[in-house]
Specification:
The structure is a homodimer of 413-residue chains. Chain A is α+β, with helices and mostly antiparallel strands. Chain A folds into two domains: 22-282, L-amino peptidase D-ALA esterase/amidase; 290-410, ArgJ beta chain, C-terminal domain (Ubiquitin-like (UB roll), Roll), CATH 3.10.20.340. Chain A has helices spanning 62-71, 91-109, 137-143, 149-155, 208-220, 263-282, 301-312, 315-322, 328-337, 368-374, 402-410; strands at 22-27, 39-54, 75-85, 116-123, 164-172, 175-184, 197-202, 237-242, 290-298, 348-351, 354-358, 361-362, 379-385, 391-398. In chain A, the strands form two sheets. In chain A, strands 1, 2, 3, 4, 5, 6, 7 and 8 form an eight-stranded mixed sheet that branches. A six-stranded mixed sheet of chain A has the order 12-11-10-13-9-14. At the A-B interface, α2, α8, α9, β12 and α11 of A face α2, α8, α9, β12 and α11 of B.
Chain lengths: 413, 413
């Protein structure tokens, strides 16, 4: 595991305001790690509205199966997250572990088992012993406090080198409402030690179906636009909860996704998810540089995103950035291999503000010196214009360094 | 560039027999490299039948465009290959370079320009100065000899650490015919310094249309089943030529792909391509281990191949093998992310002969010690049985090491 904090870590953390109706507790259960917290409990004192999106993996973890099942009820009273073990590919014993954890949580909080949501992150294939932490939930539920967001983010870390939090406060029909989020993830999405998990809570009184629609829309340009290594976890989980407590301060109940009073809220939710997603990329395993890949002029936006991800997932593009090499030939390669409409002779490529290729060949004004200087930056912007349509997309990734190989090749042996 | 030969290199090279009707010359043109050959000329003294398959990239190199155009004529008199510059993304100047080279070759050999085939490999985006080698072709055509196959393979190397050759001799209706092949490639398919090129010549009198059908069929289980880094070159080229000279020894002319007399030849062609493709993988940039990924029990063979490639292209699987870690959790992840039909509870996974996972969880007989011992081998076999159908596929890749990052992150800077 990493011992030093990513050079791309945030320089400071926002103050995370308390949100009425949700309390937080963390504990050291020693599931795998020693000397740090590894269990997180969210308690909603009254049933919260809930929405979620999960991994598209055909081999999802037991907690993902469990959450999907409970999500149809649309109400949450408790969330239990453990780090150190993903409870994935654990078969019948995995299901038993989720049931045992949910039973303990429902007893601790005083709710139905289908109002409990679970997530686990850590090693795959090792049976998860829920007995290591289920007995702690009772005390945690009693001691949970509203102002523990940073502690919450710390308890769910695996190979992360820093906790990830974000917050926004906006007006909903003139009433301030807050959105707090936490996330973990360092290999996007490494299955063993770096599953992506994120939990977001608001006090805005918004119905579950509307939360789900907002989340489905917001995830495309945020968590679904970041990649560290193209590997998709068995456990990816993003959940959004509403305590609705801003209603006591006059916020209106929103039950229609087309309600225009939601516009500012939706944008703020987008900013929270965007911040968390970029924090995940900036903590990418071994990352030394963040890369923004912007594709414009594609046939469609779907096509633009496929091309952007082809560039962002290319080992050769990522190693070139690691080597501070403005190797736009590899960008051409990645455009070409995406299989999307593209015409070599209409392609333009920029590194930062410098156009390096244009009209099917190297830009006549290309300067190796200027471009090399640009590649020394911590944040690298690659832009490709295809010149054939209006489709655009932006995705984010990080460079591929020897440390990535070391982290993923050495840690278990 | 690499200075030491891959530990996975062949321990010896086959003797490459001469093939009547084709002569070979190589030369030092100093296109980029110093003190080594970098131009290859094949001369067919009578028009050879020709077939080819090329990169699927939407941004192909100028020589690929040129070859596709000439292939419709189905006859070859000369092939010119240069290393050091890929003549890709070079626009109008790239087309001019192919025309200049083809004109020089047709003058040297005494043939039409549409009987010339070209390939270039090396850096992308730099204009190729055909003048550096076009004046050499005349002398090369005069001096070309039949017994220079290994020299041919050496002249087209870029980041390759060893030349790649293969040969088979089989009976065609009782008459011995020979198939000789050469290949280059080290990052499959790295666009800058390791484009995959392969040229195969036989004396069997087989019509171009039949050669094309044989090649289309054979490429699926050979060159299209290997991957080093999932990156597809702008320049991938595989060509098959027939001099037809075995006819003088009584071999029958074959004009029908369903002619059963072709069966042994088709199998031998498959072995040549398989050998060359595996030599490319074994020279994968930074490779220390070769990985064979076999998928059985998939819904269909197309599905099996997608799953096999998902495993073979996963940076997390490849780094685990580099670290000699039997991390089957990452194999589960790669199966899950392929998006193909899969049922966690029916999945079985083997490393070598050791079944590590079965029925949705770790194999009860799993031994970390035995499995770790198996991971110390140079050749690693990963097998996944999905338990839902009859689809099978096998693909080959190599591990992902810090040297891969060094080769691709450091070489241009």
């Amino acid at each position: 595991m990493s011992t030093s904090v990513s050079p791309l870590a945030p320089k400071h953390y926002p103050a995370m305001p308390a949100i009425d109706g949700v309390r937080i507790a963390t504990a050291e259960a020693g599931i795998k790690y020693k000397g740090r917290t590894d269990v997180l409990l969210f308690v909603f004192d009254r049933p919260a509205e809930v929405a979620g999106v999960f991994t598209r993996s055909k081999c999802p973890s037991a907690p993902v199966d469990f959450c999907r099942q409970n999500l149809v009820h649309g109400k949450a009273r408790a969330v239990v997250v453990n780090s150190g073990n993903a409870n994935a590919f654990t078969g019948k014993r995995g299901r038993e572990a989720t049931e045992k954890t949910a039973a303990a949580a429902s007893a601790a909080v005083g709710c139905a088992s289908n109002e409990v949501f679970l997530a686990s992150t850590g090693v795959i294939g090792e049976p998860l012993d829920a007995g290591k932490f289920s007995h702690l939930l009772d005390g945690m539920a009693r001691d949970a406090k509203a102002d523990r967001w940073l502690e919450a983010a710390k308890a769910i870390m695996t190979t992360d080198t820093y906790p990830k939090v974000a917050t926004e406060t906006v007006l909903l029909a003139g009433v301030p409402v807050t959105i707090n989020g936490i996330a973990k993830g360092a290999g996007m999405i490494a299955p063993d030690m770096a599953t992506m998990l994120s939990f977001v809570v608001t006090d805005a009184p918004i119905a579950a179906s509307v939360l789900q629609a907002l989340l489905d829309k917001a995830v495309g340009a945020t968590f679904n636009s970041v990649t560290v290594d193209s590997d998709t976890s068995t456990s990816d989980t993003l959940m959004l909860f509403s305590t609705g407590t801003a209603a006591t301060r006059g916020a209106p109940a929103i039950a229609d996704v087309d309600d225009r009073r939601l516009d500012d809220f939706a944008r703020a939710l987008g900013r929270v998810l965007h911040s968390l997603a970029l924090q995940v990329v900036r903590d990418g395993e071994g990352a030394r540089k963040m890369i923004e890949v912007q594709v414009t002029g594609a046939a469609t936006s779907v096509s633009a995103k496929r091309i952007a991800l082809s560039i962002a997932n290319s080992p050769l593009v990522k190693t070139a950035v690691a080597g501070e090499d403005a190797n736009w030939g590899r960008v051409v390669m990645a455009v070409g291999k995406a299989g999307e409409p593209a015409d070599r002779d209409l392609l333009s490529i920029w590194f930062g503000d410098i156009r390096v290729a244009h009209g099917g060949e190297r830009d006549p004004a290309y300067s190796e010196l200027d471009t090399s200087a640009c590649m020394k930056n911590e944040d690298i912007a690659i832009r490709v214009d295809l010149g054939i349509g209006d489709g655009t997309a932006t995705v984010w990734t990080c460079d591929l360094t020897k440390e990535y190989v070391a982290i993923n090749g050495d840690y278990r042996s």
